[in-house]
Structure formats: C-alpha cells, structure tokens
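[job 4471] stage=fold_predict status=RUNNING
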Amino acid sequence: MQAGRELFEECGFSAVGIDAVARRAGVSHGTFYTWFDSKEALLREIVTGVTEDIFAATSIGARLPPDAAYARIEAANRSFLRAVTRHSRILRVLDSLADVREDFRGLRLEIRESFVQRGMEGLIRLQELGLADPLLPPRATASALGAMVESFAHLWQDPVERLDEAEAVDVLTRLWAGAIGLAPQAWPGGDRAAAATEALHE
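[job 4471] inference complete, writing structure tokens
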C-alpha cells in the first residue's frame, strides 16, 4: 500500500502499473495479487485508510463538552485542515479520477456522505441545545458547510492565499458559526467556550 501510494502521488494513477508497484514494494508480480485484484482495488484501500484517518482526527468526541459549540467547530476545522494537508496528494489523485470515472465518483460520494452525516448530527444536537438556528435544514446545511471547508482545505495552501493556519481556522470557524446562527453566548467570550478552548490546548 505504501509503494502504491508513493507511485500514485508521484506519477498519477494512469501512469502506474502493477509491475511498478511490485518493484517499489520489493515483491513479485504474483504477490500483488495475493492482496489486491487490481490497482483500482489498491487505490480504494489506500483512500479508505486516508478517510478513516481524517475522520478520526476530526472527531472531537468527549474532548470538549457538547455545549462548547464554538470551540468544537474550531477544533474540528483545525484538525481537518491538518489532515487534508497530510493527505493532499493522494486526495488529488482520487479527485482526478472521480471527475472521469463513475466508480471513483461513487467512492468520493461515499466519503463525503460520512462527513455530511456527522455534520447533520452535530447541527441537530446544537439545535436541540438551543444554540443553533432551529429553522435550518440539517442535511442541506451540513452539506453546504462541508463543501465549503473541503474546498477551502485544498485551496488555502496555495501561496497566493497568504493565510497561515491560525488565520485559516479563524475564518472557517467564524463563517461556520455565523452560518448556523450560533447563539451569542456560545461565541468566544462566553465563559464556557473560553474555558473549553483553554482546556483543549493544555
């Protein structure tokens, strides 16, 4: 898997053959087929692992209390930017294939769906706590905000943007919090949010 990832990132998917992967891994051509039936299967396995890493990295869970809404959004955005940066080259390989191949388009949609579902659950929880606009449709809102963060995560690394990580996280978090109508008491300056943010960085 490591050999395949390196080659896909270096050369692009179409330019890489199974023989090249086997050579890079130091195994025989036949050994490749012990584990994968095609290079498409290899890429899917690599991308699945990458997705699991990003999902785990951005799962705030019990690290912050449920009502520390702003701090939770901020922490998730920071973790997402870092994770996408870590995996940016292989994600670009997936995107290039998803634009022209139905099977990889389906894989990309599956990945996005898992993040949209989690975004929906988070928004519904905030609505139930009275911290977000109760009139917002959860799925459409989670989908739109997820697309914003995903696109920005790929673009902000461009030197033209001239944003460091702290600025990027601040912009994303303010936009997200504003978009969901986050209650005034949940913005920075509220005792609970400030305490939670401080605890996260200890």
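[job 4471] summary: The CA atoms of residues 145 and 179 lie 8 Å apart.
[job 4471] exit 0
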